[in-house]
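Work Package 3 committed the consortium to producing structural models of liganded targets before the mid-term review. Because experimental data for this complex are still outstanding, the team generated a predictive model from sequence and the ligand definition alone, so that downstream docking and mutagenesis planning could proceed in parallel. The input record is reproduced below exactly as it was submitted to the modelling pipeline, together with the SMILES string for zinc ion.
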Amino acid sequence: MKKEEIVTKSIEKAQKNGYDGWDKNYFREGHILDNFHYALIFDHDFLKAFFGINTCCKSCGKIIENIDYCCGYMIPTFKWLYYGEQLFLSKNRLQYLEKFL
Ligand SMILES: [Zn+2]
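The resulting structure, written out as tokens with the ligand in place, is given here.
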């Protein structure tokens, strides 16, 4: 997928889950598009809408429903925090987002 498509589809996905922050058209301009991933990794509302707010295992990211233990012990976190951190650490953030589209 082209950068522009990843940005547009990512924002559309977040909007379906109630995100009303950045408008996808805002990022169509060249340099702004390049900075999209920097803008959004700090946007918690985007991360919540994009990755979801379910509780998951802090070690592996698996959603925790009735399972109290995962990876030997339970350290819960939220999906958007877990995947938001992976996104933050990712060398190519747009490619990382693309995997969830
Ligand atoms: Zn786990």
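Reviewers should note the following from the model. Residues 57, 59-60, 62, 70-71 surround zinc ion (CB under 6 Å). These observations will guide the Year 2 experiments.
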